[in-house]
Amino acid sequence: MSTNKTNKDSWNKHAVRYQKGVNFPFDRVDYGIVNGLTESDLSLIGNVSGKKVVELGCGAANCGIALAKQGAIVTCVDISEKQIEFAKENATRENVDIRFIISDIEEINLPEAEYDVVISMAALGYIENIEKVFLKIKNLLKDKGLFIGSLPDAISSCITSRYLWNDPPETHSYFYTGATKWKWEDDDDFEFITYRHPISEYINMLTDIGFYIRKVYEIQEQLEHVEKEEDLFHVLYPNMVVIKAINIGYPLNA
Ligand SMILES: C[S@@+](CC[C@H](N)C(=O)[O-])C[C@H]1O[C@@H](n2cnc3c(N)ncnc32)[C@H](O)[C@@H]1O
Description:
By secondary structure, this protein is an alpha/beta fold. The protein is built from seven helices and nine strands; from the N terminus they run ααβαβαββαβαββαββ.
């Protein structure tokens, strides 16, 4: 089965548990980490009133809804019907009008050079060919449009592969870029397939296709929210890398 079909089926099965677990609010942008830094800490997206925004891998659309409340014209995309079901219910309850599309990010069919902002929180790690998706994102954006995304921080992936999950030895390297197959709970009968890259690779891919990198943050759960002593370890390294990139239309290495 393909990566995307596996992840779609698994997200359909896992959605209820995920939404209960993260419980993100609908009035702020979270960068995909529970108790991590938010848009009010990082100020990456800025004023979106009247701006056209696409959210890729939206889940329950917490971010899309928060931006729609600020006046953005929002399109939310996710591969999982179950996640989109949550997202639609949330948008109705929060009284915002959002266009929802059930689609694989790799297959989205939206107009090019149309959007001011593309966001994607904790979703692009599910994509095997991330370079192709970065190019798709660039093509969706207007000139000087913004891409703001949180992606797996490879340092976190290699530490947890080695010390937490006992994954195969090749995954313990920071430089591993192959697939990692994992289960949310040990006895789940479904699995996810994710990919990560060293931060330098994300930056080089983005700049090579014509993005200017404006900011890079590495974020983790904040110390004050850690409840169990054994979890203190996980505050010592970043969990996600958040990148803000501007579509300047030509490769910086040209
Ligand atoms: C960890 S959740 C993050 C959801 C949301 N952005 C958040 O921060 O809560 C990852 C999301 O990516 C979606 N996803 C995974 N692979 C995808 C793909 N190829 N195309 C579109 N969505 C995908 C999943 O269905 C899931 O909703």
